[in-house]
Amino acid sequence: MTSSSTSSISSTSSTDRIERSTLINAPVSRVWRALANAEEFGGWFGVALKGKSFVAGQQVQGRITIPGYEHVVFDVFIERVEPEKLFSYRWHPYAVDPAVDYSKEPTTLVEFTLKDTGKGTLLSVVESGFDKIPVARRSEAIRMNTGGWEGQMENIKKYVTTQ
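Given the sequence above, the corresponding structure tokens read:
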């Protein structure tokens, strides 16, 4: 399959959330598998999740494999898994400084939703809850994750359409 052009939608109406969407030239079932299968997720997201699975109510951890971020542990709590509709987890946004203990901070909620458009899958991601992140690092977390989600939406699109 070939990839269709990316349709990105950005909402900056709130400092509390990041929203991104992309149209992927693949069926919902294929995009869902790339999201909900932990090993496939790791393949496009850049995290070592071999042998792991995403189950609602459970924590999942794996080492980031993106150059320059190998010291970071991807640490998420799986909130909801609604097959071919919604996948969500909580995490500490842009928690990359090994000298900082982020465990006492609130988390943000990352929600992926999928919609069949008849021409492919509209995949949307919303990360919300930034208003609860400590002020000292909130703007950097929003800035870095905004760029991160733009890249990750391209990554999943490329992964799904070339695998």
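Helices lie at 28-36, 38-45, 135-162. Try to locate this feature in the token string yourself.
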